[in-house]
Fold:
Amino acid sequence: MIQIKNLHKSYKMGSSSLHVLKGINFNIEEGELVAIMGSSGSGKSTLLNILGMLDVADKGDYILDNVPIKDLNETKAAKYRNKFLGFVFQSFNLINYKTALENVSLPLYYQGVARKERQELALDYLERVGLKEWSTHLPSELSGGQKQRVAIARAMASKPKVLLADEPTGALDSKTSYEVMDLIQKINEEGKTILVVTHEKDIAQMCKRIVKLKDGVIIEDNKIKQILASSYV
Amino acid sequence: MFSRDRWKEIFDTISKNKLRTFLSGFTVALGIFIFIILFGLGNGLKNTFQEFFLDDASNAIFLYPGKTSKPYKGFKAKRRIEFKNDDLLDIKENFPLFIEHLTPRITRSALTSYKNESNSYSTRAVAPGHQFVEKTILMKGRYINQLDIKEKKKSAVIGRLVAKDLFKGEEAVGKYINVGSTAFKVIGVFQDDGGDNEERNIYIPYTTRQLIEKSNDKVDQIVLTYKKELGHAGALALEKSLKKFLKDKKAIAPDDPNGIYFRNLTDDLKQTQQFAVVLQLIVSIVGLGTLIAGIIGISNIMVFVVKERTKELGIRKALGATPSSVIQMILQESIFITTISGYLGLFLGIIVLENIGLNLEEYFIKNPFIDSGTAITATIVLIIFGGIAGYVPAKRASSIKPIVALRDE
Structure:
């Protein structure tokens, strides 16, 4: 599903430049649930941003679902993002003046789905994350875990090939974290490819594969035996 | 632009961000409102000014006979000059290309009465052309005509206030009034922008006046209007040659300053026009200044609005919004708000202007107004600049990488 070859990225910091990614190589198959781990500064967020087309690599190849991702302008990147990717952020990033339902249907709006269909689909996804009866509530009326579940529903609504989660449990307590991870595992079980960036070991253990980054290179890449989050709940 | 879905999205955003919508709408409405009020008041000031200075026809020349101060051609000094009917004819015959209207004016004061009401009014014995010289506006009936002059009819055109005083609301035209000891038939009622005193005059045919005064042919004063095409220089030249012609005819020394007096309004007119231009300039500057202030106001609001929405725009972009759809959304939203509130300000301004208009005459502001062309142009200018002001930050926001916009503060 994802092929990455010799990926480099550096940031200009005044006169010097900071080499963040120093040649990353890895492949992700369809249906995998991968944790990307590393301390802060290891380059894990940069990698995720490049995978999410929110940032551009300096060098290297990135192939997503057999489509080479290169020479992106903003418009093209926006279209690819909309078509291929779903995002889950640490700080949820819901639009605060829109209800849960409207937030979930927003990516469908940008896909050009008709209004009625959009609402039906969005409600369907809200139901899947267990928030159907909260559909008319604003984000400010939801708890952190609920917000993240709305965000996951929103990420799923556009039927992406890959779900990218950047510290999805970073702002949640452990009980809520496990609930969210449970949801992520269930979505993965349905066949969705998911990448989770995290620095929490117990969260990483709930994935099927752990990729460890240090100083811009991969130091470990192991398939592990997944711990089911539902066993904690 | 016309997709129903996008409009729905915009209405949604507008209605859920009431403070923001109110702020930007209020700025535009206020800008237009103040523009219309100030511009209207400026126009009111101009109206007052014009009424003060442009009462009589501005292209008039007044001729008064005087006393000579120098002996000439065998005549002694201190000889009294008099105008006669043939002077009128001579002027008419010799200057046909330059003169528009020509009229004598013989002013007398007389006790005038109708039934039990009486009062003293001045009567002006004139020719039909006087109507244009004095800019008399007829309310009812007609003015003095050539037939009145020829047959020396006892016809009178009375001022609005004369009619009010004597007739107390009764129909005046067709009734007879006594002017001095002579009965005149009222043929018309007039009004005059020159003020109340002008409306206390009575106009009668000059030939009738001469008939009453023992059939003489004396004329107190001659008033004429020259053709406007002559301009300032032409008017001065006409005055000069008229002076020469009349002095020649009346045997007055060419260098005698006292035989005939001229009052030429062309200098006044020139000054008045210059002053009017300055006034117009001031009104325009005030209007332009207000408009610029409004544009700056809406620009500030738009920058603020886009800044506030940076994160939201980042989210939208992460979810697949293209840069152009972001720009379009912001523009469409801002133009929609500015258009609605712009026209709101426009109508409010016009309504207020019309209602305060009547109460400001004592402050030298008369009938303030704004022509719809200026008002609508100003509104459109503000909308366009509101759009531009929204476009610049929107363009910048749309090119910010979503990752930057989404970074936690």
